[in-house]
């Protein structure tokens, strides 16, 4: 018994140090390891001490054993009750549980697990508290009060023991909730131990029920308040420097004159997949357009042109979204001194999104966001995070712009204020069921990963212009397959061989009715929540290929074929022509010199547009077969050739209509 009490004292002291302290405190991780060792020894010695205690006091061994089993079993699901899916951040834990309960009652099998975990957590919290209060307010002998508080103590101790064991085996997703539960249970166990001893010696059973219940309730509320204050203080991040994205050369100079921030605090994304934590997420990110936003031939050539012309202001605006770590650190002049982005740039890093704390403006645009830095862990990051992930995870579970569309829009919306032009606009529409979310499509779950950080769009040819080495191309090839599946893109083949396949645009063909050789093609934006194309309009090429043949094989119409990478004829198009002050189409993706957009034609979310064709010529040999398909390529061939890249074309969607003859 004495050995157990000494071990308990050691666990309590080291636990108090961990509860109050932080990872930057001297010797912090050594104390954590000591706490784990003492806790393991206490679990072994405590079992023997409990058996001796029950023998000497004559307490109910069966009731005690039941509390141990119940506490241990119920402790297992409780960490999962606190691992809220992203959509629950707006609802909070209680709202999320209520919504899951409603879905479970309605018969949704996916809601059974969160409801079960939530009920286990509620039972532990309410049940152990109820057992304790019932024991305290009993109007029977002192022995009953002591026994019932002892049962509550046993329940919570088993909870603390099992949650402590979970910390050794749990994944990063549930590690922090298990730590919170362990700290709560351990602290509560110490409080209940005091009540257990006090109930036996102070004859609480003879006190007025209202007084004892009020005292117990006040103690529980005060303890819960202490934990809330502790958590709230840890979320304040008073010492985290906040960097606002410089929007001009003057702001860049001011940022550079500030005490230089270490780019390493914003980069190092690859390490997220080497610490035994986020391997799948990191692998997906490594093949994404975010990863290669600055290390690609298109950006390198376009920004190099700006630097050659000494247009550093414009280069800063580009880097705000394409190379945010360099732009935020204020070191763009030094990093781009060679006329191109640095070879070690990570593009859009993990922290650039996950540590964004504010997005400026009512309508986000131009990368106008701020990022809060994360103080580094001392020593071995992976080992430190595994021992205590709270200081690492807390900054990423706060309410941030990443949970809305604002952060995405801040970079995927290009607004030229001087001419009030929006050149690139991925702002989402309302959708049939309310507000749309970028993450619903571009971060959709894949396998065991809740949010796929491959973030597929329509960049199926990323491998053609990314500055990747041989080892990195495996990730790009894997991501390209995901992009093609996501956008339902088909490889380009001659139109007569093309599959009649649906895509993210809907395409239907019908006779006009007024003319037997007039056909109407209706294009509908069925799956894209924003305008298509969203931009950049000077690079993206979207056109409607059409071919009509009769039964004798005579080609009556053929528009939009690719010959030597050139679009033949004058097919219908989507997009627009961006022109400069001289009225000429811009070159080399110099979008910051655009003053107007001519012939702009996009199809908005949920909207349709129509094109009419008249098939003129001699009397055909019926039937007449018309095939139409929307085609896409990410860049025009002149720009791609200038950047030294190859640009393939893809089929978005296709439809076919057979005309039997005049009606």
Q: Care to describe what's here?
A:
The protein has three domains: 59-234, no CATH class; 242-387 and 398-479, no CATH class; 489-659, Immunoglobulins (Immunoglobulin-like, Sandwich), CATH 2.60.40. The chain has 663 residues and is α+β, with helices and mostly antiparallel strands. The protein has helices at 2-20, 28-57, 61-75, 78-81, 92-105, 112-137, 142-169, 172-201, 209-234, 249-257, 279-286, 297-308, 312-322, 324-328, 332-335, 350-354, 381-387, 390-393, 406-412, 438-442, 462-465, 473-487, 637-643, and strands at 242-244, 356-359, 369-372, 413-416, 421-425, 490-491, 505-511, 518-525, 541-550, 555-559, 562-563, 566-567, 573-579, 596-601, 608-614, 624-633, 650-659. The mean pLDDT is 80. Strands 6, 9, 10, 13, 14, 16 and 17 form a seven-stranded antiparallel beta sheet that branches. A three-stranded antiparallel beta sheet has the order 1-3-2.
């Amino acid at each position: 018994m004495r050995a157990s009490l000494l071990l308990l004292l050691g666990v309590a002291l080291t636990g108090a140090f961990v509860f109050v302290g932080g990872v930057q405190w001297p010797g912090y991780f050594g104390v954590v390891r000591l706490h784990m060792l003492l806790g393991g020894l206490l679990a072994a010695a405590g079992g023997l001490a409990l058996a001796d205690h029950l023998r000497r006091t004559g307490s109910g061994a069966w009731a005690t054993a039941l509390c141990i089993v119940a506490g241990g079993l119920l402790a297992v699901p409780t960490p999962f009750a606190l691992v809220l899916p992203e959509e629950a951040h707006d609802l909070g834990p209680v709202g999320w549980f209520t919504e899951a309960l409603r879905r479970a009652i309605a018969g949704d099998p996916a809601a059974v697990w969160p409801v079960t975990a939530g009920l286990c957590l509620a039972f532990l919290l309410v049940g152990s508290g109820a057992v304790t209060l019932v024991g305290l307010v009993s109007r029977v002998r002192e022995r009953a009060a002591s026994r019932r508080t002892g049962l509550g103590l046993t329940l919570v101790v088993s909870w603390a023991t099992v949650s402590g064991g979970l910390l050794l085996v749990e994944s990063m997703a549930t590690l922090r909730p298990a730590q919170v539960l362990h700290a709560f249970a351990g602290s509560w166990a110490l409080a209940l131990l005091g009540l257990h001893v006090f109930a036996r010696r102070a004859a609480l059973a003879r006190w007025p029920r209202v007084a004892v219940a009020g005292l117990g309730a006040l103690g529980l509320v005060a303890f819960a308040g202490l934990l809330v204050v502790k958590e709230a203080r840890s979320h304040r991040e008073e010492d985290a420097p906040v960097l606002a994205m410089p929007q001009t050369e003057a702001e860049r100079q001011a940022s550079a004159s500030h005490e230089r921030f270490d780019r390493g605090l914003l980069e190092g994304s690859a390490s997220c997949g080497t610490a035994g934590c986020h391997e799948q997420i990191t692998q997906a990110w490594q093949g994404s357009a975010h990863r290669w936003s600055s290390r690609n031939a298109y950006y390198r050539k376009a920004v190099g042109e700006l630097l050659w012309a000494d247009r550093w202001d414009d280069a800063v605006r580009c880097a705000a979204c394409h190379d945010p770590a360099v732009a935020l650190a204020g070191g763009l002049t030094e990093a781009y001194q060679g006329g191109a982005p640095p070879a070690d740039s990570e593009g859009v890093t993990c922290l650039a999104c996950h540590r964004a704390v504010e997005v400026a403006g009512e309508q986000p645009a131009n990368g106008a966001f701020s990022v809060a830095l994360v103080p580094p862990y001392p020593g071995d990051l992976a080992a430190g995070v595994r021992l205590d992930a709270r200081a690492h995870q807390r900054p990423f579970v706060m309410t941030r712009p990443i949970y809305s569309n604002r952060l995405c829009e801040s970079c995927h919306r290009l607004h030229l204020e001087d001419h009030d032009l929006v050149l690139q606009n991925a702002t989402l529409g309302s959708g049939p069921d309310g507000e749309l979310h970028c993450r619903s499509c571009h971060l959709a779950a894949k396998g065991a990963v809740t949010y796929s950080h491959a973030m597929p769009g329509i960049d199926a040819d990323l491998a053609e212009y990314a500055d990747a080495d041989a080892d990195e191309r495996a990730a790009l090839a894997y991501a390209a397959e995901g992009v093609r599946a996501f956008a339902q893109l088909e490889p380009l083949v001659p139109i007569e061989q093309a599959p009649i396949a649906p895509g993210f645009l809907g395409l239907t063909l019908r006779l006009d009715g007024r003319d037997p050789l007039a056909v109407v093609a209706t294009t509908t934006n069925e799956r894209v929540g924003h305008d298509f194309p969203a931009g950049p309009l000077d690079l993206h090429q979207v056109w409607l290929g059409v071919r009509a043949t009769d039964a004798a094989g005579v080609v009556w119409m053929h528009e939009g074929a690719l010959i030597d990478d050139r679009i033949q004829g004058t097919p219908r198009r989507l997009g627009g022509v961006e022109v400069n002050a001289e009225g000429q189409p811009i070159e080399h993706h110099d979008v910051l010199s655009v003053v107007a957009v001519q012939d702009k034609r996009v199809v908005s979310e949920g909207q349709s547009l129509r094109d009419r064709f008249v098939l003129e010529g001699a009397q055909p040999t019926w039937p007449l077969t018309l095939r139409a398909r929307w085609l896409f390529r990410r860049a025009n061939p002149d720009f791609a050739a200038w950047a030294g890249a190859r640009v393939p074309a893809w089929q978005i969607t296709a439809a076919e209509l057979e005309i039997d003859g005049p009606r």
